[in-house]
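Fig. S4 source data, part A: sequence.
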Amino acid sequence: MRHCKFAGRMFIYAVVTLLSACVVGPSYQEFWGGERVYQPGVSFELPAGKSWVALIRTTYQAAIGTRDMPPNETLIVATSVYDLPGYANKEEFLQAVKQGRAAEPATGRFEKISLVERLYDARPETCVFHQSASNDYGVEAKRGGQYTVYETFGMNCMHPDYPAVGILVELSRKAPPGTTFPEFETMGSFLLQSVQFGEF
């Protein structure tokens, strides 16, 4: 299994960049909205109303994007399965997730707009919900220049049957500033509630 404390935004953002470049060939697996996707240890249902294509799908990572978006916008569902050292309770897991996300490299590329991190009481499992928005100034990180807005809506969970396994499920959106996508939170909530934990 992957030895990653917490899956950071760079994996997901690399996939966003891939989708933005329209690197989609005929070998990529396609899905319909409402279809359930199975990975070892977890499955989830893709939000309805759009067609989806797998950009990355390995044993422990998946990134599935839609092409049904306006120009210069991306929408991606990503999952990652990773190792956990084991935590005594939900609060300890919450603090570990916060510390793991805060420890992501400070490259200057992202400027935080908002961030919410809390225990996710909408699920019976031990999960930490996160919702964030950041200005992305690109690889050169030139503040004051052009930027896009990068939003996430997701959760990190301890697998209920395998407490040494963590699972990230997240919906992310990248778009020009000033654009809106009212369905984002509804789709994100649907995705998180659709998650089912299974065997490896």
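Fig. S4 source data, part B ends here. Residues 7-26 have pLDDT under 50 and may be disordered.
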